[in-house]
TrEMBL record:
Domain (Polysaccharide chain length determinant N-terminal) ranges: 2-86
Transmembrane segments: 390-413
MF GO annotations: protein tyrosine kinase activity
Coarse class of the protein's main subcellular location: membrane
Keywords: Cell membrane, Membrane, Transmembrane, Transmembrane helix
Topology of this chain in the membrane: Multi-pass membrane protein
Source organism (scientific name): Sandaracinobacter neustonicus
InterPro entries: Bact_polysacc_biosynth/exp, LPS_length_determ_N
The protein's name: Polysaccharide chain length determinant N-terminal domain-containing protein
Location of this chain's protein in the cell: Cell membrane
GO cellular component: plasma membrane
Keyword Cell membrane: yes
Record keyword Cell inner membrane present: no
Pfam family name, one: Wzz
Amino acid sequence: MSVIQFLRILLARWKLILATTLACLVVATTVAMLLPKRYPATARVLMDMSKDPVTGEVLVARGSGYVGTQIAIIKDMRVAGAVVDRLNLTSDPSLVEAYEATGRSVDDGGMRQWLGARIIEGTDATMVGGSNILEIIYQSDDPERAKRIVGVIRDAYIQESLRLRTDPAGRTGTWYQEQTELARKDLAAAESAMSDYMSKNNIIMVGGVDSETAKLASLQAALQQAQGMESSNAIASSGRLANDPVTDQLSVQLAQIEDELALAGARLGTAHPNYKAILARRNTVQNQMNQARSRSQQSVSALSGAAKQSVSQLTREVETQSKLVLERKPVLDELVRLSREVELKRSQYEESNKRTGELKLAADLSEPGVIVMGDPTASRTPSWPKVNQVILLSGLLGFGFGLAAALIAEFVARRVRGHEDLSFAAGAPVLSIVGASPPSPLRQQLRKLLGRRSPGEPDADLQAI
């Protein structure tokens, strides 16, 4: 079939096509006008991206997975059931009558389940493009009713979001609290065991170490100090012997007297009384100098002996204390083990107690992580059915049905509507058309473009007679 044959069929069957199109338009428009209208109402919330109130860490960017989870929560039966309870829909006579007409029973979930499913069916949510705003949509046959329900849905969603954040923290916090109590008991038992062990073995802790070890360290420090003092005293004693002021002064006097004595002996002689007086004075100074040297020697010897005695005594005490500490080493090693166990138990208790506090704080949160944005709004324009779209689609569909009906009718009762049909029916080419006016050049061109020749038909244009 060529395009021109198809157009001839359409022109011949235009009444059938028009009737089918009009019928579809009338039926669809009537149904659209009779169907109950549904009006959308919206409520918005802002997904909060602030810091975590417990840890203080900045929350990571929330992607499609998080948004999908929030939408699933909004359309969950827990939210829908909360809406039913808050609006007390199970006591509405019209809804009770509609529920009874369904024939459902408690085994099917009851009226609350049925109403919740209806609310979920009319609920949707979507993210406003390029933002963190989540828009909740509810459709109902009454715009005011839709506005009231979508506001309750938003409130129920916020409460459910808060509950989903706090309930796991509360349950985990309860478990951690139990573990904290067990850790506290373990710590008390470990401390008691270490205290009993120290009491049994007469161990006294001083500055984190036992008293015997502390005493050994003190004696070792005293020994080192005494050894240092001994060396210092030896050097000081040598200097004192070499630089004794009394001895030095007497030495100067003795040298002067020696000079006087030599001069008197040369001038006066050794038998002269003055010579003998100077000699006696020299002997006296000599005795005084010897006594001074003797006292210095005794003082240095006494100081050196005391230092040596102190070092010797401290050395013996250090050796004795070292033996005692070595003998008590197994006891002290066991004490170290018990002390480490106490520190481990204390660390476990502190960590568990800290985590318990954090979870308790998280369970007491009052921020659901979303922020309410404005009041719910309702549209007075129905979102369904959309009459304009219904008319357009029904017209296109009716026109399509009309075309199909026209073609079917044509194939059932095929007629000759042009020389192409005649050529096809006769199986022979049409050479001329009697009584037809000569075709115009434009018509000839269109015939060439739209027409389709039968097999054996000549290429030359048909001549009208």
